[in-house]
Design goal:
The chain is mostly helical. The chain has helices at 2-15, 26-33, 51-76, 82-96, 98-107, 115-139; strands spanning 19-21, 24-25. Strand 1 (19-21) and strand 2 (24-25) form a beta hairpin. The longest helix has 26 residues, at 51-76.
């Protein structure tokens, strides 16, 4: 199980430096997602156009905090809060899929998302798989 968790952590880390949207690296896309609460004049300007988008973007950025909490918990406290971690990761994956829906809405298909984004979402999937393995191991 530890190898699955290490893989998830490596995928996550690498995703921050690869292009996530067009030629923008993951760390900058994260920074932009927080522009409504932490002004940023990056490549796309700053902030969302509606309060709803702002809420979704900030919530989406905060899924990164959940990833860190989940990975740390699974590595160092592998028998605690497994259901909460697993369902929190599932919710994070659903929230993170928002960017695919937004890209499809704007372009008709996901055209501007790049490898960094998919690696980032994939890291959440792999971590959820690790949480599921831990849960299954605990119940047997």
């Amino acid at each position: 199980m530890k190898s699955v968790l290490v893989l998830a952590g490596l995928m996550y880390l690498v995703s921050w430096f690869l292009p996530a949207v067009e030629d923008v690296p993951g760390w900058e896309a994260f920074r932009y997602a927080l522009a409504d609460i932490w002004p940023y004049g990056g490549p796309w300007g700053g902030g969302s156009s509606t309060w709803y988008e702002g809420l979704v973007w900030v919530t989406n950025a905060l899924t990164n905090v959940w990833f860190g909490i989940s990975l740390t918990s699974l590595l160092f406290f592998p028998h605690r809060f497994l259901r909460v971690i697993l369902w929190g990761l599932v919710l994070a994956i659903v929230l993170n899929a928002y960017w695919i829906a937004l890209d499809v809405k704007n372009n008709g298909y996901p055209s501007s998302l790049r490898i960094g984004y998919y690696l980032w979402v994939g890291s959440f999937l792999v971590l959820a798989f690790g949480a599921r393995l831990a849960l299954k191991r605990r119940s047997t």
